[in-house]
Amino acid sequence: MNGTAKGTWHAPGRVNLIGEHTDYNEGFVLPFALPQGITAEGERRDDGLLELHSGGQREVVELDGLAPGRVRGWAAYPAGVAGALAEAGYLVGGATLRFTSDLPTGAGLSSSAALECATALALTGLYGVKADRRELVKITQRAENAYAGVPSGILDQSASLLCERDHALLLDCRTGLSAQVPLDLGEHRVLVVDTGVRHSLDDGRYADRRAECEKAAGLLGVPALRDVEDLAASLSRLVDPVLRRRVQHVVTENHRVQATVGLLKAGAAPEVGAMLTASHLSLRDLYQVSWPQADVAVEAAVTGGARGGRMIGGGFGGSVIVLVHRDRIARVRQAVDEAYAARSWRPPSYLEAVASPGAARLS
Ligand code: ADP
Ligand code: MG
User: What confidence category does residue 207 fall into, taking pLDDT thresholds of 50, 70 and 90?
Assistant: First the structure.
């Protein structure tokens, strides 16, 4: 075995610049990795147990007989990775894993994928198991879907495992193929506004959206909404106004991802702001997954001088991103703070999203 008795691995959270609710429709997304993430300090052990520590909590899981549904709560994510590795034929044994995080949880910055990806690198690293990153994307996604019970696409895990510094990742969620897109924002910055509202992806609303999209694709006779070519003709074939709205969002959002890549390649980063705002309005009015604090943050930020902004993540809580000239960050923050205060909402928290490297071994 070429493993290592102990080591430390880090997996980042992510911001998805654009392409929301397109991943499970086999479309396109454009995430980049954050400097913030989850670190796993790992040590091999030979008793077949997975001992997991995080934030003062300790969970012990037996690897033998690990199956979806056996482990609940936060430990389902790392245990799910061990289970999914075994299912895929990658034999890893017991370990003690100590997690530390500087990523807010449930903020739409993908702490769950960071937890899974840090675990995947730690377990494969400790046991000298060679699995390529694309394979690990599938394994960590399986952990989230089957073991944690969240029916998410490959966006978050791909971002954590495949992103590179100063680049966004253009990911085709149908093929899993990706391309690095240089993210040169010039004097502009991406500011994350954590609205403080917490979502739960397993509360059913996310699953509802997926089911609506599948139904619409079935009615339109296409494998996935990614394949809708003539939007107007497709909309006219759908009777249900709800399904029409969902389709319109997914199709136009895929176009916005491509347009954003075009703007970045043309050195027109500030114009990405308009794409972000268009995405937000579509998520608010057509896909209907935004929440009041996100709507107010986007509106106040734009009024305060930002180039644009949008909610990120599955919806109903989490964060907003805003594209803003660095000299206007303070003004935009003040505008958002004031808009929140006027509604007696708790002030949001902020972090600057700097495109950072993907998951890696630290020591
Ligand atoms: P997001 O991925 O946007 O942060 P999710 O709801 O997908 O939100 O995942 C959050 C869940 O991931 C938490 O409820 C917890 O179960 C798990 N999690 C994230 N970070 C940690 C951590 N540092 N320690 C333990 N569990 C964590
Ligand atoms: Mg998550």
Answer: confident
DSSP per-residue codes, 33-71? EEEEEEEEEEEE-SSSEEEEEETTEEEEEESTT--TTSS
pTM, whole model, 2 decimals? Answer: 0.95
pLDDT digits (tens, 9 = 90+) for 333-358: 999 999 999 999 999 999 999 999 99
Q: Which residues pair with 361 in a beta bridge?
A: 9
Q: Is 96 in the pocket of ligand 1 (CB under 6 A)?
A: no
Domains 6-182 and 188-353 share a fold: no
Helix intervals (H) in the chain: 76-87, 111-126, 133-142, 155-162, 205-220, 231-237, 241-265, 272-285, 292-303, 329-342
Measured from the Cα of 74, ligand 1's closest atom is 16
Q: Is 101 in the pocket of ligand 1 (CB under 6 A)?
A: yes
Residues with CB under 5 A from ligand 2 (ion): 110, 112
Taking residue 58's Cβ as centre, other Cβ atoms within 10 Å add up to 11
Mutate to test the pocket of ligand 1, among 111, 119, 150, 321 (most ligand atoms within 8 A of CB): 111
State yes or no: pLDDT of 56 exceeds 60: yes
Per-residue pLDDT of 228-264, as tens digits, reads: 999 999 999 999 999 999 999 999 999 999 999 999 9
Closest ligand to Cα 37: 1
Per-residue pLDDT band at 201 (split at 50, 70, 90): low
CATH number of 188-353: 3.30.70.890
Closest residue by CA, ligand 1 atom 23: 101
Q: What pLDDT score was predicted for residue 239? A: 97
Give the CA distances from residue 11 to residues 81, 98, 226, 299, 330, in Å, rounded to whole numbers and listed in that order.
Answer: 14, 13, 29, 32, 30
Topology at the third CATH level for domain 6-182 = Ribosomal Protein S5; domain 2 (3.30.230)
ipTM: 0.99
Q: Is 156 a catalytic residue?
A: yes
CA of 112 to the centre of ligand 1 (A): 4
